[in-house]
Amino acid sequence: MARLLRVRLNPTTFERSTVASGTENPKTILSLHPKASSFRTKTMSHSSIPREKLIRKCRQKKKEEEEEPLGGDMEDLFSEKETQKIRRSMLEWYDTNQRDLPWRRRREEEEGEKEKRAYEVWVSEIMLQQTRVQTVMEYYKRWMLKWPTIHHLAQASLEEVNEMWAGLGYYRRARFLLEGAKMVVAEKEGFPNQASSLMKVKGIGEYTAGAIASIAFNEAVPVVDGNVIRVLARLKAISANPKDRHTIKNFWKLAAQLVDPSRPGDFNQSLMELGATLCAVSKPSCSSCPVSGQCRAYSHFQENGSIPVTDYPTKVVKAKPKHDFCCVCVLEILNQESNQSGGRFVLVKRPEGGLLAGLWEFPSVILDKEANLTTRRNAINIYLKEAFHVEPKKTCNVVSRKELGEFVHIFTHIRRKIYVELLVVQLTEGETNDLFKEQAKDTLTWKCVDSDVLSTMGLTSAVRKVYSMVEAHKQGLSAAPVSSNRTAISRKRRIT
């Protein structure tokens, strides 16, 4: 009995297909070719293709993909004439127009000075990721005063580094910087001086390795960051998705071709400087650009004013952030032996992995959805009981409990609505001893600090916002809910 092959067809034109039956030649099978919108026959041997042959074919295909030409609107590299012209124009412009930044000062060529220069470049590049130059400058100066060499940094604790980093955001960068410094010092082989060896250090990727190797050790390797992508995309009028893996690989090819072998560090910095200043995201100064004569995007704009330079690189739609809700309880414990208005605040250390790893914050609970006051307080009460054995009206006297308001804080992929309350309690003698008992420093997950210490700690911007609401309340100021146009925001920003 014939076996029917049931196929669901789209409303397009198909070639005649064959119905397979048990009596038909088993060598003939059906295959669908979407581009042709048709069925065709394909012949297969009785014996399956050996596994080793399939593996070889897959490897060959992968190799061909890796070696494929730039393709599409990236089909060609720069010509030798273009390359030389761009190098010369960029370096001349950079020598005259570079910004005076603390990490750019030149040093002598002694090996020890090169390593110190490498450390400075490393710190500055990590700080500059997703953070504005003007913001970074003060942080960089304070950092270098505290840890002037990689050996000084290697002796620091994560808590010290986090406190110094507070306010810059993306705290994982600081942790990796510390771990990388400890790794380099522990190996006792000096600072790695090539991009390939630098990439073996914790927290150093291809971009940072290229920056350190070219600027500090004069290795002719490229760098590609958001600014460089913007410059290259406009020079070549590249409309491919700049986030695509193959497109990014091709940007590295273009950057590698352009890098000047005699001054690789200065040339790489010139590309980044151009992208940060003249070749801006929204309002580029093309008339002042040193390479406008080689810029295809600018040429297209001059020929057809309806195609602006800002069309390059292609804008990629960002994923919508996840929405979540958090209730924060600022727990203030009054001194049992005095009637002073100020007490000590409980801070909790976040887990060592995940968002804001290892940082200090007020006790808080993440909610599945938006909740009313009663639900929020019940959640906080359960948390306080489990974490600190604190039960309002049972194990402590509630002096006051006040809702201070709410605000929105935006992380990279999370839009968090934060509800803030101040709970002031006075513990009984036994409970005071339980709460304030000594804990080993390496196992400490919470601590109590007074207001003077709290105001000087390195805290995240969201925690500082919460504490500012507490201070405003204590000063008798209005602490009404923050309106949507005054939300505390920690956004991913471009370097400018």
Automatic annotation (TrEMBL):
Cofactor note: Binds 1 [4Fe-4S] cluster.
BP terms from Gene Ontology: base-excision repair; mismatch repair
Keyword check for DNA damage: yes
Superkingdom to which the source organism belongs: Eukaryota
Enzymatic reactions: Hydrolyzes free adenine bases from 7,8-dihydro-8-oxoguanine:adenine mismatched double-stranded DNA, leaving an apurinic site
EC number(s) reported in the record: 3.2.2.31
Stretches the record annotates as Disordered: 17-52, 59-78
UniProt domain HhH-GPD: residue ranges: 127-277
Compartments where located: Nucleus
One term of GO molecular function: purine-specific mismatch base pair DNA N-glycosylase activity
Stored InterPro entries: A/G_AdeGlyc_MutY, DNA_glycosylase, HhH-GPD_domain, HhH_base_excis_C, MIG/MutY, MutY_C, NUDIX_hydrolase-like_dom_sf
Enzyme class, spelled out: hydrolase
Pfam families in UniProt: HhH-GPD (PF00730), NUDIX_4 (PF14815)
Acidic residues composition-biased segments: 65-77
UniProt keyword list: 4Fe-4S, DNA damage, DNA repair, Glycosidase, Hydrolase, Iron, Iron-sulfur, Metal-binding, Nucleus
Biased composition (Polar residues): 17-28, 38-48
CDD domains in UniProt: ENDO3c, NUDIX_DNA_Glycosylase_C-MutY
GO CC aspect terms: nucleus
Biological role stated in the UniProt entry: Adenine glycosylase active on G-A mispairs.
Family annotation (PANTHER family): ADENINE DNA GLYCOSYLASE
NCBIfam families attached to this UniProt entry: mutY (TIGR01084)
Family listed: Belongs to the Nth/MutY family.
The protein's name: Adenine DNA glycosylase
